[in-house]
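From the shared-data thread, chain only:
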Amino acid sequence: MSWYDEAEYIRTQAKKNNEFFANSLPMIASENVLSPLCREMLITDFHGRYAEGTPGHRYYEGCNFFDLVEEKAMELAKKLFKCHYADVRPTAGTTANIGILKALIKPGETATVLDLANGAHISFGKWGGAGVRGINLVSYPFNDEEMNIDVDGAVKLIKKVKPKLALNGRSVFLFPSPIKEIAEAAHDVGAYMVYDAAHVLGLIAGKQFQDPLREGADVMNGSTHKTLPGPQGGMVLSDHKGDTDEDKSFLRKIGFGIFPGVTSSYHLHHVAAKAIAYAEHLEFGEAYAKQTIKNAQRFAQALHERGFKVFGEKLGFTKSHQILLEIGPKKGKDASKKLEDAGIVTNMNTIPGDTDPLNPSGLRLGTPELTRIGMNENEMDEVAKFYERALLKGEDVKKIKADIKEFRKDFQELRYCFKEGFRGYDYHKLI
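Structure, as tokens:
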């Protein structure tokens, strides 16, 4: 193949990917789609540039315009989350997590965490960033019925092991965490409380979940491409003001953990797109977060009524964008593949009691992207019927896929963002 043929092959696969998702029901809880303005930032000249350091203090020249962009991104982030400190440089949520671990805990020291089978994110586990850092991890007790950390048990554990950090990192995030109680116990033993908001960052910014920085978390990390629908990336937030020597030292450690700790240059075009996403979320975030949660709750109820085992029933199934299903022992992988064949994109997921993450017993589902393309509660009932047809009734997946493609025809434009790109082009169409 010629170089042109090779390039055309790649372009064709990208086009097929666009068409696949535009004709499917994308329900992976960690995914979303970019607004026209965010997309335009990703093709600017910022893409190929370097800006090591901080605004006004660079290792390279030529950063004058980007300095203004980064300063604006930090300003918007602090306004959006009502806090005093924002670092928009991390290139991913996991990068932000590892940077914080580098800043605040040494190898061999202890951190309390949630266990992976109970919904933790891998970056706070022994196979992820915490393991790379060489941290001694001690797991919180978990309440399976409430799908949350056992508050009394967690407080007792913190007082017993006296960790350096009390971590709250979750990939399955159905309900707000007991941050106030955990933070108080952590501070009593001289530990910092770290809240990984990767999944729920947009819900927090939209004032629809919990408020970790006001509830006692010293630092909050997050991903900028899930319920906060911006570009792939991460961020770090804190309400420490830096008005005391102790506070200044804390914030210096955080900044040093991110750079030079885990970043060199940090994808300047993504920082510009993050700034746009913050501005859009200030305008549309509250409405978007409300509808995302409403959709998740309605969808969970509809699945339950059709005979699915949905976790969190006692508390209304979910208060976030996520739903967790129990499919059967080690059947999560097969179920997710069958759904994909039917035009529904999900992911297999561990549930309480699972020990093998590659052969889990559950599915994790999310409503951020369906909400983003204009679906509301009524559509959630229809989506639940597709699940029932595929997983309970065993209907032909090709027929279901054709019906989903027809169903999607009315949902091909983005909502909850500014309408046009800067050049006046309407990028709202998904294909």
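The chain has a mean pLDDT of 94.
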